[in-house]
Design brief:
Helices cover about 40% and strands about 20% of the residues. The chain has eleven helices and eleven strands. The protein has two domains: about 120 residues, Rossmann fold; about 130 residues, Rossmann fold (3-Layer(aba) Sandwich). The strands form two sheets. The protein has a six-stranded mixed beta sheet with strand order 3-8-7-4-5-6. The chain has a five-stranded parallel beta sheet with strand order 2-1-9-10-11, with helices on both faces. Helix 1 crosses helix 11.
């Protein structure tokens, strides 16, 4: 991938952790987009967490759960590795869920058959037949520390389930004392990816100038509404998996390239 030149707005800004950016770049290259100008500016790093004393209960008694929900790819990477240290063979009858396609694919690659909702969200998970009636059942949610909305847990509790968390990683914001981008780089950005409210707020705080003319890609209508309130005029909502994100990047990039061609 080449670096976007100054003075021409055609660059793509990737803001996730380095490993997550690398996976998206691999998809871009597999789609023949190796020449796409890309800037990587991870807003955060993902760090594994050592189990706390209170984590021993869900880890050692995994076989007592009916459902295990993994919120993200990082939850799979760090959570499955942790559980595998204690469970060389997974308990029978345990139902596994990935919140999105990438999470599900990663679970499958580790030999864990799982269910992924068609709508990649907490709402999609709760609409699954397996999770509609969970009275007196036990659910383990594997996530990062301080992992966002409590709505999934609250709704499962309202349906009569017992719900526990296992937090296996933490996000650490990166510092950019000199700024996230130079003014030249900022003026070259056409497409920006932001996956959470916190990332979007930090992106805006660190950016020189305005991103109002850039095309923003986000994973939910909730973040789209927030982005428009912050001044973004062009916001696409795309399923939060790499293939879908890359498809939208290429659509926006090709549409802009076509519109810049001289009219005959």
């Amino acid at each position: 991938m080449r670096t976007p030149p100054g003075g021409r707005r055609d660059g793509v800004l990737l803001t996730r952790s380095s490993d997550q950016n690398r996976r998206l770049l691999d998809v871009l290259e597999s789609r023949g987009a190796a020449a796409l100008p890309v800037l990587q500016r991870p807003l955060l790093d993902i760090l594994a967490l050592d189990p706390r004393p209170e984590d021993r209960q869900p880890i050692l008694h995994l076989d007592q759960y009916d459902h295990v929900i993994l919120i993200s790819q990082n939850a799979v990477i760090h959570g499955v590795a942790l559980l595998a240290d204690y469970w060389p063979q997974w308990p029978a009858g345990l139902h596994w869920y990935g919140v999105g396609a990438a999470t599900g694919t990663l679970l499958n690659s580790l030999g864990i058959r799982c269910t992924v909702p068609q709508d990649y969200s907490s709402e999609g998970l709760l609409a699954l037949p397996e999770l509609r009636v969970v009275k007196a059942q036990k659910v383990l949610i594997i996530r990062g520390a301080g992992g966002g909305r409590e709505w999934l847990r609250d709704e499962l509790l309202a349906r009569g389930a017992q719900v526990d968390y296992l937090e296996v990683y933490q996000r650490q914001w990166r510092e950019y004392p000199q700024g996230l981008l130079t003014l030249d780089e900022a003026s070259s950005i056409l497409i920006v990816l932001a996956y959470s409210r916190e990332s979007l707020e930090r992106l805006v705080a660190l950016m020189p100038g305005s991103l109002a003319d850039s095309c923003l890609i986000v994973p939910s209508e909730r973040i789209q509404t927030l982005a428009k309130g912050m001044g973004f005029g062009k916001v696409s909502v795309v399923r939060p998996d790499d293939e879908a994100m890359v498809t939208e990047i290429l659509r926006l990039w090709n549409a802009t390239a076509a519109s810049s061609l001289p009219q005959k």
